[in-house]
């Protein structure tokens, strides 16, 4: 039986030497970046609240020996991923130890030229970082398209030349005064450049959050080192990172660019079935009651299946929804090296979520979907799969996992959380707002 090809579709990497990568005229804010990072680090939780728990989860000693240094050390990073069976990875920015060079939602507000300079600096760093393991580390390039879309398009072309693997959807459309809504055709050069250069567009948690707001919220959560990951509400809560789905559907982007691939990362997956049902209802209401409204060519679910995918750590409840979400749309990402990641217990996490999952479906979710969506060379990865990949019997079956470890996964990553309510009214208000911008009402 062939070993499992495991590609983590959501990991994090970031530099610490900002001055090396930022252009000289944009280095005046570095002291503030470092100060903010220190403040945020003090207020976040670790993977284990005490020494006893640390000893239980850190059986390889990787946490105690500085395993998180893979955030900026590619050699340590690859060692940690391979130890858990991963042969390749997709790399996003963002960590409490490195908040980002002006462009992130974790930053305080910065003007557009600083955000653009930070994107360029990050992309340069990322290309060098990923060159440690060509074809196995696909970095997601950061972009600031306004006010110079032409420069952004050139940055996308450069990202392809540098060997990067995806393009982040800029975080602040219709938030920053220089960024129009995603429903605007002014974004078409961006979509076209991503398609022409065979890049997926990556929406990650943090999209749509105004700079300064996330930081302010973190500063208020002083108890996290004691209480762990905040427990989500039972309602499938609204996250701005989901809004691009219907914006791209109803504005015709997927009709104008049918080959566009869009991924939604680390914003959970349980929202997909109910949101698609909601969008289907809105589609039919317009189709039957507003004959003058120009509707997209396909139904919302058809665009989801053709153009979209979702990735994350995939908790048990989310896996139970996999056929409603789409087995071919789901990718596992272990969120290394965050405190809420499955690392260094990814194998135990996977044994829990893969129980009763057919091997063919597990293979898609663990790596085959990511290879297709991001363009990893499966043949080139094959020797690494043979060297470090797990046997199917190591992850797929009926395994006993200690209750203490499950409790820790819940503490640090709300592993057992399950939303059971959906409130359509806030979503309807946003859809109506987007519809007005398209003259659909």
Low-confidence stretches: none
What structural class is derived from the secondary structure elements?
alpha/beta
Q: Treating each run of at least 4 consecutive H or I residues as one helix, how many helices?
A: 21
Give the number of DSSP strands: 8
The biggest beta sheet reads: 8 strands, parallel
Average predicted local confidence, pLDDT: 93
Helix content: 40-55%
Distance between the termini: 56 Å
Provide the succession of SSEs.
EHHHHEHEHEHEHHHHEHHEHHEHHHHHH
Radius of gyration: 21 Å
Approximately how much beta-strand content do the residues carry?
A: 5-15%
Shape estimate: globular
Main β-sheet, spatial strand arrangement: 1-2-3-4-5-6-7-8
Walk me through the structure:
By secondary structure, this protein is α/β, with parallel strands linked by helices. It is 45% helix and 9% strand. An eight-stranded parallel β-sheet has the order 1-2-3-4-5-6-7-8, sandwiched between helices. α10 (243-250) runs parallel beside α21 (424-437). The protein starts with 5 loop residues before the first strand and ends with a helix.
């Amino acid at each position: 039986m062939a070993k499992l090809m495991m590609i983590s579709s959501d990991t994090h990497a970031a530099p610490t030497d900002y001055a090396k990568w930022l252009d000289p005229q944009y280095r005046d804010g570095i002291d503030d970046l470092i100060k903010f990072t220190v403040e945020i680090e003090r207020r976040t939780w670790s993977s284990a609240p005490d020494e006893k728990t640390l000893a239980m989860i850190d059986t390889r000693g990787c946490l105690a020996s500085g395993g998180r240094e893979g955030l900026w050390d590619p050699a340590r990073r690859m060692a940690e991923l391979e130890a858990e069976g991963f042969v390749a990875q997709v790399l996003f920015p963002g960590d409490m130890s490195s908040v980002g060079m002006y462009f992130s939602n974790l930053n305080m507000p910065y003007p557009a030229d600083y955000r653009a300079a930070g994107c360029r600096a990050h992309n340069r760093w990322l290309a060098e970082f990923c060159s440690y393991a060509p074809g196995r580390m696909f970095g997601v390039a950061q972009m600031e398209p306004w006010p110079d879309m032409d420069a952004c398009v050139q940055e996308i072309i450069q990202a392809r030349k540098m060997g990067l693997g995806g393009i982040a959807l800029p975080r602040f459309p219709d938030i920053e005064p220089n960024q129009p809504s995603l429903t605007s055709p002014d974004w078409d050069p961006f979509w076209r450049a991503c398609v022409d250069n065979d890049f997926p567009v990556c929406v990650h948690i943090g999209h749509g959050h105004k700079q300064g707001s996330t930081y302010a919220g973190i500063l208020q959560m002083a108890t996290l080192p004691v209480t762990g990951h905040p427990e989500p509400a039972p309602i499938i809560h609204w996250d701005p990172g989901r809004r691009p789905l219907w914006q791209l559907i109803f504005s015709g982007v997927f009709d104008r660019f049918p080959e566009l691939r869009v991924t939604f990362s680390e914003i959970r997956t349980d929202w997909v079935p109910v949101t698609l049902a909601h969008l289907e209802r809105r589609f039919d209401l317009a189709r039957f009651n507003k004959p003058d409204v120009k509707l997209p060519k396909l139904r919302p679910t058809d665009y989801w299946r053709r153009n979209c995918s979702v990735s994350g750590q995939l908790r048990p409840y989310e896996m139970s929804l996999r056929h409603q979400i789409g087995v071919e749309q789901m990718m596992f990402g272990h969120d290394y090296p965050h405190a809420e990641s499955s690392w260094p217990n990814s194998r135990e996490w996977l044994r829990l979520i893969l129980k009763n999952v057919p091997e063919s479906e597990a293979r898609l979710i663990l790596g085959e979907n990511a290879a297709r969506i991001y363009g990893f060379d499966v043949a080139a990865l094959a020797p690494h799969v043979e060297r470090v990949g797990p046997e199917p019997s190591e992850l797929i079956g009926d395994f006993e996992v200690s209750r203490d470890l499950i409790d820790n996964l819940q503490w640090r990553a709300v592993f057992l959380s399950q939303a059971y309510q959906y409130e359509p009214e806030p979503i309807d208000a946003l859809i109506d707002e987007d519809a007005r911008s398209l003259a659909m009402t």
